[in-house]
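Q: What would this chain look like folded?
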Amino acid sequence: MEEKIRFINRELSWLSFNDRVLQEAEDPANPIIERIRFLGIFSSNLDEFFRVRVASLKRMDEFDGLSKKTFGGKPQKVLAKIQDKVLAQRHDFDRVYEHILEELAVKDIYVINEKQLTAQQGKTVRAYFRKKVRPRLAPIMVETAPTFPMLKDKMIYLSVKLGQKAAPTKHKYALIEVPTDHVSRFYVLPEKNGKTYIILLDDVIRYCLDEVFSIFDFDEFSAYTIKVTRDSELDIDDDVSESMLSKITKSLKQRKRGRPVRFIHDEEMPEEMLRFLMRKQGLRKQDNVIPGGRYHNFKDFMNFPKVGSEDLFYKVITPAEHPEIKSNGQSLIKLIQKKDLLLHYPYQSYDHVIELLREAAIDPLVVSIKITIYRLAENSNIVNALINAIRNGKFVTAVIELQARFDEEANIFWATRLREEGAKVIFGIPGLKVHSKLCFITRKERRKITRISYIGTGNFNENTAKLYSDHALLTCDERISAEVAQVFMFLENNYKTVSFKHLLVSPFLMRKNLLALIEKEITNAKAGKKASIILKMNSLVDEQLIEKLYAASRAGVEIRMIIRGICCLKTEVKGMSENINGISIVDRYLEHTRIFVFENGGDEKIYISSGDFMTRNLDFRVEVAVPIYNQDLKKQLKKYLEIQLSDNVKARSINKEQSNPYRYNSSKKIQAQQELYQYVEKLKPVEK
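A: My prediction, written as structure tokens:
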């Protein structure tokens, strides 16, 4: 019997994913400092969730008659469920944090507050405050200020009550922005008797409030942390006379003043102060006003100080050598001309990608380089290589997505930089985000033209490549390169029609092709042939594809999924999805690669892709999935998936209850990311 409700709400599924991040913070098998950093990741994730998803629901709630189908109910109903879930997570978060502090104390590392300072430590803190902190403070006396200040997104504030012991009813309120953008959130005090003490910047300021307000005759001070999260959606109008660059720049300024979608406050804050702050900001209780602990913006804990012994951190891992790529300055271009290469990072070094671009930049036979850019590193070696190519006379085309959320300002900077150097910069396509990860190098030797294609699952970002699990194919296969050239032709000339036989490209035929691949498995299953699908991705949301997977399950197709984040499909439901099971792996590296495997009657089809099974990826973005034709490389990806599907340490089952049970069993422990490093380390060169 099929379930009445066929899909899991995407917002609640995302919160279930963040539960898995919190599980990593609680897992005693992880090093203690790394567990603190998982708390930071959890907090950062939740901030973005409110800026994007909750903000979207709030906007939709303003319009009546919204579709129940998309959200599993009216937006206000989903918002209420989100509020309940977030409050429950907050209690779990506080419990985990307190437990970690206890474990740190066993290691003689103490996170203390202003009330726990000794007299000598107090002197040290005051000296630090006067030198580093006080110059950055700009207190606002709220009652005498002409207007209540607009609280910035991503920042925390101390709401301060100034009072007098002799006159308890006399008080004033002030606000202090905690300057975490200029001063470290953590101050490590001088070691004492082998013990390390750390105090947060918030508490440094609390300790010195008497100095901050020394001109007044107040002698009592109490301060409570508050934080506002704002709607991050860019408001881009349809004025065709204005360039996309100008529109995005203007919208970024508007984002800073986006409406509040969450207000967090210290639960110990007096009710009178809370009512005052809410009234000044025009907030109501139902506006995601969330009581929290003493500290907010735990995202800063991702940069917790490096203190204590080595066992408090992950062991440093050196990327494995690629079996095909020697460290003797060999030509990568000539190597790719001989055979396809598959990169597995972070298990292998991302430097190979940078080296390829550096080689192309100085190779006199390289004519042009084309690349799609979504997110770049802060000091991008990719861009440096492209600039070097321009200076060496190469034609460089960069398709830069200005609407890469939260990277818009950085992308505007890099776009301007490349334009100044002489690159042809294209700002995407109206109505579509360019999310594909492509690089296309053209080389002309005598009358022979060689075209090298890079098709990846992750961004051209050497920093995140050390933390994100991704794949990339490097090939001169003309079947692939001819179609990569067509993708760039479309990006440069939007009016050109293109067709693809090998690549799956959205928004063209990726959806149709994926549906056809699933349908073929259904046909084979009904004919009594072996039929199976393996899907690895970040998110599974698109209802049409989920319905097709349900149909495949009913036909007897075995479907195994590795979904890191959102999964709106209900697994193992009798009569609907009993042949579908899924896991999610949250571990040291962020699982980011997308791999699709179809049995295809014994002639297996394997793709790596830049996009997930989400409506936005299939219909509103330019995404590219590339088939892997080399048999040895197909075996590598199959083994990669086999190891992940065998994980019984960091894998959680994806179930309809969203309870995230670990897949522990009594057999040999398999922690996929550790096993994958060992596997990649032993890879041998492949056949041509």
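The two ends are 50 Å apart (CA to CA).
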